[in-house]
Amino acid sequence: MMIDTSLVAGENETRTADLKRDYETLGERLDRRGVSIDAIKAKVAAYGVAVPSWGVGTGGTRFARFPGKGEPRHIFDKLEDCSVIQQLTRATPNVSLHIPWDKADPAELKAKASSLGLGFDAMNSNTFQDQDGQPLSYKFGSLSHTDAGTRRQAVEHNLECIEIGKAIGSRALTIWIGDGSNFPGQANFTRQFERYLDAAKAIYAELPDDWRLFTEHKMYEPAFYSTVVQDWGTNYMIAQELGEKAYCLVDLGHHAPNANIEMIVARLIQFGKLGGFHFNDSKYGDDDLDTGSVDPYRLFLVFNELVDAETRKAPGFDPAHMLDQSHNVTDPIESLMVSAMEVQRAYAQALLVDRSALEGFQDTNDALMATTTLKTAFRTDVEPILAMARLENGGAIDPVAAYRSAGYRQKVAEIRPEVSGAGGGIV
Amino acid sequence: MMIDTSLVAGENETRTADLKRDYETLGERLDRRGVSIDAIKAKVAAYGVAVPSWGVGTGGTRFARFPGKGEPRHIFDKLEDCSVIQQLTRATPNVSLHIPWDKADPAELKAKASSLGLGFDAMNSNTFQDQDGQPLSYKFGSLSHTDAGTRRQAVEHNLECIEIGKAIGSRALTIWIGDGSNFPGQANFTRQFERYLDAAKAIYAELPDDWRLFTEHKMYEPAFYSTVVQDWGTNYMIAQELGEKAYCLVDLGHHAPNANIEMIVARLIQFGKLGGFHFNDSKYGDDDLDTGSVDPYRLFLVFNELVDAETRKAPGFDPAHMLDQSHNVTDPIESLMVSAMEVQRAYAQALLVDRSALEGFQDTNDALMATTTLKTAFRTDVEPILAMARLENGGAIDPVAAYRSAGYRQKVAEIRPEVSGAGGGIV
Amino acid sequence: MMIDTSLVAGENETRTADLKRDYETLGERLDRRGVSIDAIKAKVAAYGVAVPSWGVGTGGTRFARFPGKGEPRHIFDKLEDCSVIQQLTRATPNVSLHIPWDKADPAELKAKASSLGLGFDAMNSNTFQDQDGQPLSYKFGSLSHTDAGTRRQAVEHNLECIEIGKAIGSRALTIWIGDGSNFPGQANFTRQFERYLDAAKAIYAELPDDWRLFTEHKMYEPAFYSTVVQDWGTNYMIAQELGEKAYCLVDLGHHAPNANIEMIVARLIQFGKLGGFHFNDSKYGDDDLDTGSVDPYRLFLVFNELVDAETRKAPGFDPAHMLDQSHNVTDPIESLMVSAMEVQRAYAQALLVDRSALEGFQDTNDALMATTTLKTAFRTDVEPILAMARLENGGAIDPVAAYRSAGYRQKVAEIRPEVSGAGGGIV
Amino acid sequence: MMIDTSLVAGENETRTADLKRDYETLGERLDRRGVSIDAIKAKVAAYGVAVPSWGVGTGGTRFARFPGKGEPRHIFDKLEDCSVIQQLTRATPNVSLHIPWDKADPAELKAKASSLGLGFDAMNSNTFQDQDGQPLSYKFGSLSHTDAGTRRQAVEHNLECIEIGKAIGSRALTIWIGDGSNFPGQANFTRQFERYLDAAKAIYAELPDDWRLFTEHKMYEPAFYSTVVQDWGTNYMIAQELGEKAYCLVDLGHHAPNANIEMIVARLIQFGKLGGFHFNDSKYGDDDLDTGSVDPYRLFLVFNELVDAETRKAPGFDPAHMLDQSHNVTDPIESLMVSAMEVQRAYAQALLVDRSALEGFQDTNDALMATTTLKTAFRTDVEPILAMARLENGGAIDPVAAYRSAGYRQKVAEIRPEVSGAGGGIV
After folding, report:
1. Is residue C427's pLDDT more than 50?
2. Coiled coil where (chains A, B, C, D) (predicted)?
C-alpha cells in the first residue's frame, strides 16, 4: 500500500458516525421506494473502472503543458500512482497500458502490478505519433496510409501490443488512430477506408481467441477535415467487417455537437457490438474533462442504458470501462479518484430507477412520469452508498481528504525530478 | 407548355450571342486542361433532379407561414407549377408526390403529368401528421408507436402509397417519420427501434420487386430529445435489416453540426446502400434553405463523391435526386429553378475535376495539390455550360428572367384565391 | 380555487409523515454543513417564476400540432389553468400575456386574475405573425422591415401592449422578433440593424418610467440565415443604445451549440444589463423542452450565478423569471408545474453552495475542490425543502399526483370542445 | 530575393500567353456587367495580408507534431521563408512577430526584414505558455490570474512587446490569452473578468498614441469549460472599456458552431470596433486550416461586408489582415502562398458584387435576386485578375509551381538541421 493504512483508518474514523447515520436514513427512504440499499451497495462495491496509465501524468494542449509536482517518470511510477487511486477508492482495480509509452519487461510489469494489487486492462497501441528511430512516419496516416510499408509497420506495432498484453494478462486491444485528412481531396475516403479495413483485418487475424478488439471512433482531431473512423456508423461497419471478437468503443467526448450519446450506446448494445467506454466529459469537443464534471445527467443517461441492458440480460453485453481524461489543472490522482467515483455514482443512480414503473409509463406514453422516474433516481444523493462501499472494501470515506492528508504528492515530488514546461504542438 | 414558347424564345434571343461567346472562350480554356466542354454539356443536359410537389407551395415555420400570391390549391395546380420549372430549366423532369396531400385519382394524375411532360419520382408517405378522420393519432409515434394498432395503421398507409405509386408509374417509396421522444425516458430506445424494424419489414414485404425503399434519417425535429432514425448509422442498420431493395436517403440538412456529409455519402456508396438525396442547404439545422445557397462548396464536395463513384462504376450506384426545401420568403417556382440549376452546377464542376491528377496527389500525400485540384474545378464558372444545355434542350438561358417576364405568378394569382396567413404550430 | 382544497389536503395527508421525516434528516445533514434548512426553505417559499399564458395550450412544430383534451379556448380558460399551477405549486404567482393572442377587456382580465389570486408579469408583443385584417405583412420583417410603414405598425403594436399592460398592472415589455433573413445578401446587416434600433428607440421613448424593456436574442428560427438580434452581444448593444430601462432577456434555448450560458449570464449581470430569463431546456436548438429536463446541471450553474449576484448584492440585479416552453407530448399544466419546481430546485441547490469555501478554492486555484463544492450542493436532494415550502404555503406535496387525482383535465374537457389537429407551417 | 528572379521569369513566360488571353476574355465579360477589370486588378494589386512568423514552421496538435524538411531554426530563417511568400505572391508585404519566440536584437530584425523587402505588422504577446526561467507560471491564467504578481508579469511582458514593436516599426499589439477554466466553479467569472480588465487597462495605458490594441476572443481551447474572452460580446465590452485605440480582432475559427461570422463582422464595423482578422478556415473548431479551404463562400461573405464598409466609407474602418494557420501536412510556405491568394480572391469576388443592384433587391425584399447577385460575383473565376496583378507586381503567375521549380525547400533543408518529431501535449 502506497499510503499508510493507519492514516486512512484515522481519516475514516472521523467520518464514520456521520456516514452511518446518512446511510441509515437514506436506506430508510429507499426502503419506502421498495429498494434495498444493501443490494445497491453490493453492486457498487463490485463495480470497477480501469485507469489509463497515461492519465496519472499532467496533460496538455497544443498550446502548452504545465506539469505538476512529482510527475511519474515511467510506467513503474505510474503504477504506484494508480495504486493510490485504487487503495483509496476501491473502484479502479485495473490499469490500461499505452505502448510504446509504457514499454518495459513484461515480467517486471506483472510483478510490480501484482505487488500493488493491480491488474491490467486493455492494451492501447499508438500509431498517431512518430517514435525516435521509427523507420516510417505516421504524418500521413498509419493503418490507412497510402504506403503499404507504413501500414505494415502499424499492423506490426499492434501485433506487438497483443504480445505484450498476452504476457501481462490483458485480454483486449484498443485501436485508436489519428488517420484522416486536413483538406478536401487530400484523401480518397473510399480507398482510405479500404486500406484501413485491410490493415485492421490483418491485426484481427492474429487476435487470440479469448481477446476482444475495440475500435474507437472520433469526429475530429488530430485530423481536422475528416477522420477515417469518424463516427459510430463507420465504427459499426468495422466491427461487422472484422468479426465477432470486434466491438465498438465509445469515448464520450468523440461525438458531434448535440449528439445523443445514450442512444448510440443503446443501438450498439442492441446489435451486440458495444465494446466499452472511455469515460470523460466535454463541453466543446474532445475536451477530456473529468467524468461527470460538465453534464452529470448525460453520464447518468448512459448508465441508464447500461443498467437496462444488464437487467434484461442483453445477449453478449459485457462492456469494458475505462477513464480517459486529460488533467491539465488538477492533481491527476485526485481527478481520477473523483472521476472513478462519478462513474460509480451514475451506476448507483441508474440502479435506483424503478424499471417496472418506467416501462409502464413508456407503454402508456406518459412522458412526464417516465422522465420523472429517471429524475427521481438521478437526484437521489447516493454518496452514502458509495462511501460505505469504499469503507467496507478498505478504502477511504473521503479519498481526496485522505490523499491530501497523506501528503503523497509532496513525498513523490522529493524523489521524482521536476519536469520543465513543455511547449505544445504549435511551435 | 404553361409559358408561351415564343416568349422564352424571345428572352433567349437577347442572350444567345453573349452565351455563345462565353461558351466558346470557356471551351477554349477547358480544352487547355484536356477537357471537352461538349462532353460536359452532354452529361449536364442528361441530368435531372426531381421536384417535390409540396415544394411549390410557400413553406413556413412553427411561428408562422406567410403565403405568397397564387398559391397552388391542389396537386393539379402543383403539377402545373412544376411543369414551369421543367419547361424553363429542363432539369426537373419528375415530380415526387406526398400522400395524402396529393391524393387524387391516379389516372387523372397520370394524364395531367403526361400532358405537362412530367413523370413521377418516389412516393412519400406521411405518418407525422394526423389527418381528419384518422382513427388513431400519431402524437406518440407511428411505425414505432407502442400501440400495435397505430403501427398497423401507419404500415397500411405506406402500403397505400405503394399502390398509388404503382398506378402512376413510381418505382420507389420514401419513408420519413417524426417518431422519437421529447424527454429522457419517454421511450425505451431499444424496444422503440425493434417496433420500427418490425413495421418497416411489414412494408418491405409488400414492396414490388422493381421498387426501392428509401429510409431517411434526421437528427431532430419534430422530436427534440431523440429520433428513432437519428443518423446514418441507424439508417444503415435499417437498410441492412430490411434487405437488398432497402437504401439510405441522405437529406443534406438532417445532420449534426459540423458533420462531414460527403464522407457519409462515400461510406454509403462503398457499402452499396446509398439510395439518394433530398437536396437543400442549411446553416443551423433542418433549415430547408435553397440548395447551395449557404455552402456551395459542400454541395460540390458531395457531387465530387458522386462523380467519383460514377467514374469508377461503383457497384449498385444509382442514387435518386430530389430537391426538398421550404420556400418561406421567395417565389417557390423561382427557388426551385435556381436550386435545380445549383445541383447541375455542382455536378458540372465535379465533372471538371482532373481525377487522374487527383489520384496521383492523393497517393503521394500532396495535400496541397490535391485540394487545389478540387478548387480549380470548383471555381470554374460553368454557367455557360448549364445555359447552353438549357438552350439546346428547349429551356431558357436565364429561367428566372424568362419566368418573371412571362408573368406566370400574376396570371395564376388571378385564378387561384388568396390564402390567408396561417399561424404555425405554437398557437 | 380551481381544485377542491380538501382534495389537496387529503393528498397531502398521506405524504406528510414521510415528508417531515425527510425534512428532518436532511436538516440534520445540512446542519453539519453549517446550513439552516429553514432559512433555505424560507427563500424557496418566497421564490416565484411567471407562467406564460400560451404555455397552457399544447404546442407544436412546423410539421404538426397534436392537441390534447380540454385545450383552453381563450385567455380566461388559460388563466384558470394557470391558477391550478399556482394553487398546487405556490411557485407561479404571475402570468405573462401575449398580445394579440390574449387580447380582452383589461378590466375583465384584471378581475379574473384577481379572483384566481394571480398577477400579471411582462407583456409580450407579437410581430412575427400576421393577424387577420392586419394592413401590412411581417413576412419580410417587422421592427427592422425595409418599409417605414410596416416598422411603424410594429412600433404601434408594441405601444398598444404597453397600454394594455398599464391597465392590468404589468411593469415590463418583452420584445422578441422573427426578423432576419434566409439568404446571404437578402438583408444588409447594418442597415437592418439601424432600422431595428430606430424602431426600438421609438418604443422605448413611450415606456413608462417604472417599466423595463426586455429584448430577447435568438440565434435562428424562424429566420434561418441570420437574425437581427442573433446573440447576447447584439442584445447588449441594444440595451446600451436604448438606455437604463432597457435590459437583455436570456432564453436558455436561444444560443449556439456548446455556448456557456452561465457565463453570458455573469457578463450581463456584471454590466448591469440582465433583464431576466425565459426558462426551458434544449438539446439541439430552440427545442423549448421542459426546464431542467435535459441538462439539470446547466440550470444549476445558471442559478449559481444568480445566487452569487444576490449574495454580493450586485448593483441593479433584479432579473425577471418566466417559463417559456412548448408542451407537445405532455399535459401542459403538469409540465409547467414540474418546470416551476425545477426552477425552485436549482435555486435551492445554488443556495446550498458554500460560497466562502468556494471563493477560497478559487483564489488558490484548487479547481478540484472548487468544482466539488458546486457538485456537493447540486447533488443534495432538496426535494423535502421544496415540498415543505409548498405544504406550508398551502400547495401540494406532490402537485402532479394531486392534479391527477383531482381529474381537472377531464372536467374541463367536458366544457371545452375538442380541437382538431392543426398542420404545421410546412403545408 | 531568395529565389532566382530569372527562374520566376522563366516560369512566367510559359504561362503568359494563356493568362493574357484569359484576362482579356474575362475583361470582356466583366465589361458587359459594367465592371472594369483593370480597376479590380489595381485594387487587388494593392491588397496585402500579413504573414505570421510562426506560420512558416510546421504546426501540430496535442497528439503530435510531424516536422517537415528544412524547418526554420529562428526568426531570421523565418523571415527568409516569409520573403519567399512575398516574392512569389506579392500579397504579403508584412510579417507579424510573436514574442518571445521571435525575440532578437531589434536592429538586426529591422535590417534583415528591410533587406528582404519586408515590414512588420502587429506584435503578438505570449502569456499562454511558460518560458524557461519565467518566475511565475501561467498554468492558472495570466492577465486574469488570481495572483497579482502573475498578472503584473503578464502585463510587463505585453509592455515589452510594445517596446520591441516600437523599435522595429510595428503599430499594433495583439493580445490573445489562454485564460479560462476547465471546471464549473474553478473561476468566478465576474472577478476573473474584472482582473482581466484591470490588467488590460494597465497595458492600454502604455500604448503609444499611434498604436492600436487588438484583443482576440475564442470560445474554447486551451481552456475547456470557459474562456475569459469567450466571444465577440465580451471582446466588444473590452474594447469599450479600454478606449478608442482598442479594437476587436476576429479569428475565423474561434466561434461557436454555426455562428454567422459575417454578421459579427458587420456589427463590429457598425460600432467602430473591428480591429482586424486572423484568417484561416475551420470545420470543427479552431482547426487552423488553410484560409478558404473548407468554406470559401463564408470567406467571400466576410469580404462582402468589408467591401460594403469600404464602399460606403464606414467611419474608422481600417482592419488589419493576417493569416493565422497551422500547417500540419503541407509545406508551410506553399500553404501560406495559397492562403494569401485566397484572401485576394475573396476580395476580388466581393469587389465584383453589383452593390447598387443588391441594394435595390434588398429594399424590395427580392431575396432571390439579392442572393443571386452575391452568387454571380462569387462564381466568377477571378484567377486571371489575381495572376495578372502578381505578374505585373513582379511575382509569379503560379507561385506554387515556381516555388517547387526553384527547389527552395530542398536547398534550405541542406542548411537547416532535421528536427525530430515532437510529441504533443498529451505525454
Report:
1. no
2. none
